[in-house]
Amino acid sequence: MAIRDAILPEFDHEMGTTRKALERVPESNLDWAPHPKSMKIGRLAGHVAELPSLATATIAMEALDFRPPGAPPREPTVMTSRQQVLEIFDKNVAAARAAIAGASDADLAKIFTLSAGGKKIFSLPRTAALRAFVMNHLIHHRGQLTVYLRLNNVAVPSIYGPSADEGQL
User: What does pTM read for this prediction?
Assistant: First the structure.
């Protein structure tokens, strides 16, 4: 079995459950955060929508510096509407899925390096970077988002099994 064929079912599942969480972000409260040090829900939803694009970068590039020295700061995605954030997410998921589906085992064995401000964070085989940097990263922030939903009295979707709001799958 090709490595991509082992990755794609997990990717599809995680993106599907992530979309369910994004569909529930309340448009009326995008500046809400549980703590002053926490991201606001609109920024967190925007970040979750951005994250699948990292799969495309991981496969297409040998290295990524997400804060290159001397470059202007990048403009983060902030949710302005449910439609906007879902369109960004869906576009990024489609591109990421196509990149993964088109990657050979040799492509996925190549090393990918992530840096910030010229300082190396990690160098990993692309397969490991897809799992850690893309999917685990997205799962982490989706978990935060579902807590934000709960704290805003929004029903939390089932992800790996029934939620307190959705007792049946």
Answer: 0.95
